[in-house]
Amino acid sequence: MSEAFTTKSVHWDCSSRRQNLAQRIYERINARMSLQKDMDVIDLGAGTGLLTYKILPHVHSIVAIDTSEAMLEKLKEKRSGEDRIRTCVKDISKESLHGFYDGVVSSMTLHHIKNIVTLFEHLYAGMKPGAFLAVADLLREDGSFHSDGSEGVHHFGFDEHELRTLISYVGFKEVTFEIVDIIQKERCQYPVFLLTAFK
């Protein structure tokens, strides 16, 4: 997947659709979660930092994790001396986290991860008691969302009941699920959900 995003990273932030989606996801996370200035948070699949930089003013620090070094390089270009963001090239579905965190946010990353059970288990193990999880992604779709090809796409969105069951199985509690935006592409609409839960 990281190779597929190397070329895309150059113009990633030019999309108003991506910018608007990040804003909507941020607004709902900020409304649902009690973000605090002493929190250390992970942005899973941070990419160029569209969500990272919106969450940062409300927390102590963010570890921006992605499998694409090119995407994280674009994030670092925007950092301009900001030392509260640390980048990490890593696949959390294959490697455990180092340290313990107060929360995890993620935007449009889950469908790129093959083994989401192991992913959530690794996240859960690296979260402090009471830490929050806020994950946004596509509702189940027919595979047409990625019109430029499905390289690096392991799930055509997610079913609410199945995802709730998986999250609860891992150990997360107080699971909520809501539609936060609708992506319009050509003649199709793709709902985007936000799932929140706590350890």
Short descriptors:
alpha/beta, 199 residues, single chain, seven-stranded mixed β-sheet
How would you describe the overall organization of this protein?
By secondary structure, this protein is α/β, with parallel strands linked by helices. It has a single domain (4-198), classed as Rossmann fold (3-Layer(aba) Sandwich), CATH 3.40.50. Helices cover 28% and strands 30% of the residues. It is built from 6 helices and 7 strands; from the N terminus they run ααβαβαββαβαββ. A 7-stranded mixed beta sheet has the order 3-2-1-4-5-7-6. The longest helix has 17 residues, at 16-32. The radius of gyration is 16 Å and the shape is globular. The chain starts with a helix and ends with a strand.
User: What is the level-2 CATH architecture name?
Assistant: 3-Layer(aba) Sandwich
Count of DSSP-assigned helices: 6
Helix content: 25-40%
Average pLDDT score = 90
CATH domain class: Alpha Beta
Q: How far apart are the first and last residues' alpha carbons, in Å?
A: 29 Å
Number of strands: 7
CATH superfamily: Vaccinia Virus protein VP39
Query: For the report, how would you describe the main beta sheet?
Result: 7 strands, mixed
Low-pLDDT sequence parts: none
The name of the CATH topology is Rossmann fold
> Which of globular, elongated, flat, extended, rod-shaped describes the shape?
globular
The domain tally reads: 1
Query: Which sequence of strands runs across the widest sheet?
Result: 3-2-1-4-5-7-6
